[in-house]
Specification:
The complex is a heterodimer.
Chain A: H1 2-11, H2 14-32, H3 38-49, H4 54-71, H5 73-79, H6 91-99, H7 103-136, H8 141-157, H9 163-177, H10 195-198, H11 203-221, H12 241-247, H13 249-264, H14 270-284, H15 297-312, H16 314-320, H17 326-337, H18 346-349, H19 351-377, H20 379-382, H21 387-406, H22 410-427, H23 433-455, H24 467-499
Helix pairs in contact in A: 1-19, 2-4, 2-19, 3-4, 3-11, 3-17, 3-21, 4-7, 4-15, 4-17, 4-19, 5-6, 5-7, 6-7, 7-13, 7-15, 7-16, 7-19, 8-9, 8-23, 8-24, 9-23, 11-21, 11-22, 13-14, 13-15, 14-15, 17-23, 21-22
Chain B: E1 2-3, H1 5-22, H2 38-61, E2 66-67, H3 75-98, H4 100-114, H5 119-140
Antiparallel strand pairs in B: 1-2
The chains are: A mainly alpha, B mainly alpha.
Chain lengths: 500, 155
C-alpha cells in the first residue's frame, strides 16, 4: 500500500502532470496527421525523455501513444486516410459514415470506445503483469530461451502474411543485434576496426530511421496528391454513445479482450488488433451486410481493440523484457536507460515506479475524453498544416534526435541507412516488425541460448527437461508447425485438384 | 519500387556467405565449446537458406527485375524523395564544418522549396526552426550540436 501511495506522489507532481498534458497534445497532433504514426511519436520522444526522471519519461510515451492511436480515427472520417496504421481497418467505414452525414457518430464512437478499450487493457495490465512476474521469478535460462523464441515465432508466423519474408526480416534484425562486443565471448563482431561499431548499433537512431525517415520518404512520394476534406457537422460527439454501449456490450468486451491479447503477443500491435477485431465483428454481427456501408458496429469493436492493444503490449515488455509491439520495443530501451530494467524483479525493486506507470495509463485514458473532443473540434486546423513544411521540420528533428543519443554524427548515418532499408523492405512486402523484435531481443536470445547450451552440456534434451520450459517449447513448435500444416494442406488440395 | 524476389534472395545468400566467412576464427568462450561464432553462424545459415527459397520463388514469378512506381515519373515527388536522402547525407558531410545552424537552414530551405512550399513560407521556417531547436535541445537539454564556422559566436 505504501508503494501505491508513493506512486500517486510520483504521478501527481506538477512537473509530471505538465509533461503528461504536453505529451497528450503532441500525441493528438501526430496521430491526427496522416503519415505520422504513434511509433514515430515514441521514437521522436526518446531524445527528449533522455533528460527526464524515469516516471515523466515513461508517462510522456504512454500518454502520447494512447492519444495518437485515438486521433488516428479523425482523418479517417475527414480524409478517408488513416492517421496511424491502427485506424486503417475501419477507415473506409468511418468515411462512409461521414458521407452519410453521420461523421459525428463515427468520431464520437472512435473517442468513447478508444477510452473504454484503453481502460480495459490497462485493467488487464494491472492485474496480469504482477501475477505473471511472480511466476517468472522461477524462470531459468531455458524458460527465457523458449519464451524469446516463442515471441519471435509469433511475430513471424502469426502476425505476418508471408512467413518466408517475415523470417528474413527477423534474421536481419538478429544479425544487427550481433554487431559489437556485447556477446558471450566479448569478441568484436562485424566491427571492421570501427570504434563506433564496437559498442553495437544503437537502437534509437535505427528506430527513428525505420519509423520516421521511411515514413517521410513515403510522404514525399505522395506530396502532389492533395488532401480533400469531407464536410462534417460536428456538434456534441457524445450524443448517442450511451445507446451504442447498451446496443453493443458484447462487441465492446470482445474487441477489448482480443485487442489486449493481440497487443501482448510479440510483434503484433494495435494495427493488427484492429484488423482482426474488425473481421471478428463482421463475422459475429447480426447485420454483417451493413459493414462497409457506414455502419458503426465495426468501429465500436475495433476502435476499442486498438487502444486496448496498446496497454496489452506492456505486459510482456514489463514482465519479461519482450516487447508486445513496436512502441514497447522502443520503450524497453528507455526502461534500461532509466534504471527500470524490465523483468520480474522490477515489480519488487521498482514497485512505486511500476504502479506510477499503471496510474499514468488510467490518467491518460481519462484525459482522452476532454482532449479528444478538443482535437475533433480542431481537426480542420490540424489537417490544414502544410505537409511540405511539416515533413522537413520533422526531418530536422530526426537528425537532432539521432545525433543526441551518442552525440555523434554516426547516429545520423545509421538513421539514413536504416530508413532506406525499412522503406525498401516495406515496398517489397517484408514486414518491419520482426526485424525490430530481432534487434531488441537478439542479445537476450543469444545469452540464454549459450548459457543453456553450456548448462545442458550441448545436449538438446536439456532444453525440454523443466516443465515450464517443455510447455513453452511445445507451444513454440506448434506455432512453427501451423503454417507448415496449412501449406501441406494446400499442396494436397492442389494435387487432388490436378488429378480431378 | 518492386525488386524481384530472386535479386533480393541472391543478395541475402551472398550476405549469409559473407557472414559465414567473416566469423571464421571468432573465439569460443574460455573453457567452453561455444562462443562468438555460434549465434551469427546460425543466423547466416538461415539467411542463406531463405535467400535460396526467395531466388526460386522470384524466378518462378516471372516479375520484372525492378519495377518502378508511378510517382517516380512525376517531377515533384521524385525530387522530394531524392532531396530527403541527399539532404540527410549532406548533413553528415557538412554539419561539422558549417555547424548545425547553417546546415539546418540550408536543408530546411531546400526541402521545403523542393516539396513545393512558397518562398514566403519556406524562408521564415528555415530561419526559425533551427533557432527553436537550438533553444530546446542545445540550451535546455544540453545536446552539443556542432557550431562549425559559427564557433566564435557560440552562446
Amino acid at each position: 500500500m505504501a508503494n501505491v501511495i508513493a506512486a500517486f506522489g510520483l504521478v501527481f507532481d506538477p512537473y509530471v502532470l505538465w509533461v503528461i498534458f504536453a505529451s497528450a497534445l503532441f500525441g493528438l497532433f501526430v496521430g491526427a496527421v496522416p503519415g505520422l504514426t504513434a511509433t514515430m511519436a515514441t521514437a521522436l520522444l526518446v531524445p527528449v525523455t533522455f533528460f527526464m526522471p524515469p516516471v515523466p519519461a515513461i508517462a510522456s510515451i504512454v500518454t502520447a501513444t494512447a492519444m495518437a492511436i485515438f486521433a488516428g480515427d479523425i482523418p479517417s472520417c475527414f480524409l478517408r486516410m488513416p492517421g496511424t496504421p491502427a485506424s486503417a481497418a475501419y477507415t473506409d467505414e468511418a468515411y462512409a459514415m461521414t458521407k452519410k452525414g453521420q461523421g459525428e457518430i463515427a468520431l464520437g464512437a472512435g473517442l468513447v470506445f478508444s477510452v473504454i478499450g484503453g481502460l480495459f487493457g490497462t485493467a488487464v495490465l494491472i492485474l496480469a503483469a504482477p501475477a505473471l512476474a511472480e511466476v517468472a521469478l522461477k524462470f531459468s535460462s531455458f524458460e527465457y530461451f523458449w519464451l524469446v523464441l516463442l515471441g519471435l515465432s509469433c511475430a513471424v508466423f502469426i502476425a505476418v502474411g508471408d512467413a518466408l519474408k517475415g523470417i528474413v526480416s527477423l534474421l536481419l534484425g538478429l544479425l544487427v543485434s550481433a554487431v559489437g562486443l556485447d556477446n558471450p565471448a566479448a569478441h568484436p563482431r562485424f566491427t571492421f576496426g570501427n570504434a563506433e561499431l564496437a559498442g553495437g548499433l544503437t537502437l534509437i537512431p535505427i528506430m527513428i530511421g525505420m519509423f520516421a525517415v521511411s515514413e517521410i520518404m513515403r510522404s514525399a512520394s505522395t506530396i502532389d496528391e492533395p488532401w480533400d476534406m469531407a464536410k462534417a457537422e460536428v456538434g456534441n460527439v457524445f450524443k448517442g454513445m450511451g445507446r451504442l454501449i447498451v446496443k453493443y456490450p458484447l462487441a465492446i468486451v470482445r474487441g477489448s479482450a482480443l485487442g489486449t491479447a493481440i497487443g501482448a503477443l510479440p510483434g503484433a500491435g494495435a494495427d493488427i488488433a484492429a484488423w482482426m477485431s474488425y473481421a471478428m465483428s463482421k463475422k459475429f454481427s447480426k447485420e454483417p451486410e451493413k459493414f462497409g456501408t457506414g455502419h458503426v458496429e465495426g468501429i465500436v469493436e475495433s476502435g476499442a481493440a486498438n487502444n486496448s492493444a496498446l496497454a496489452g503490449a506492456w505486459i510482456p515488455a514489463l514482465v519479461f523484457g519482450i516487447p508486445g509491439d513496436s512502441i514497447t520495443a522502443i520503450v524497453i530501451g528507455v526502461l534500461y536507460i532509466k534504471g527500470l530494467n524490465p523483468g520480474p524483479t522490477t515489480f519488487i525493486d521498482n514497485a512505486p515506479s511500476i504502479y506510477a506507470i499503471f496510474i499514468v495509463f488510467v490518467l491518460a485514458n481519462l484525459l482522452m475524453l476532454p482532449l479528444g473532443v478538443a482535437a475533433i473540434k480542431c481537426a480542420k486546423q490540424m489537417l490544414r498544416v502544410p505537409r511540405n513544411v511539416l515533413m522537413p521540420v520533422i526531418l530536422l528533428f530526426c537528425i537532432v534526435g539521432s545525433f543526441a543519443i551518442n552525440n555523434s554524427a554516426f547516429g545520423v548515418i545509421l538513421m539514413l541507412v536504416f530508413g532506406v532499408l525499412a522503406w525498401l523492405l516495406e515496398e517489397n512486402g517484408f514486414p518491419v516488425a520482426p526485424a525490430i523484435l530481432g534487434m531488441v531481443l537478439g542479445a537476450m536470445l543469444e545469452e540464454n541460448f549459450i548459457s543453456s547450451m553450456i548448462k545442458a552440456d550441448g545436449k538438446l534434451a536439456g532444453f525440454f527437461e523443466r516443465p515450464i520450459a517443455l510447455g513453452l517449447a511445445v507451444t513454440t513448435l506448434i506455432v512453427f508447425a501451423w503454417p507448415l500444416a496449412g501449406w501441406l494442406r494446400r499442396a494436397a488440395a492442389a494435387r487432388a485438384a490436378d488429378k480431378a | 519500387m518492386k525488386i524481384n524476389d530472386a535479386l533480393t534472395g541472391a543478395a541475402l545468400l551472398l550476405l549469409g556467405l559473407a557472414v559465414l566467412w567473416q566469423i571464421q576464427g571468432y573465439p569460443a568462450m574460455p573453457g567452453q565449446k561455444y562462443g562468438a561464432a555460434l549465434f551469427p553462424g546460425l543466423i547466416a545459415v538461415g539467411l542463406a537458406a531463405c535467400g535460396v527459397l526467395l531466388v526460386i520463388r522470384g524466378a518462378r514469378s516471372g516479375a520484372a527485375w525492378v519495377a518502378l512506381d508511378g510517382w517516380m515519373a512525376r517531377r515533384r515527388p521524385m525530387a522530394g524523395f531524392i532531396g530527403v536522402l541527399l539532404g540527410l547525407a549532406l548533413y553528415v558531410v557538412l554539419a561539422d564544418t558549417l555547424g548545425f545552424h547553417i546546415t539546418g537552414f540550408i536543408l530546411l530551405l531546400g526541402w521545403t522549396l523542393v516539396l513545393g512550399a512558397r518562398p514566403a513560407v519556406a524562408v521564415p521556417v528555415a530561419i526559425l526552426a533551427p533557432i527553436l531547436i537550438h533553444l530546446a535541445f542545445y540550451k535546455l537539454l544540453r545536446i552539443p550540436l556542432p557550431w562549425g564556422v559559427l564557433q566564435s559566436f557560440a552562446f
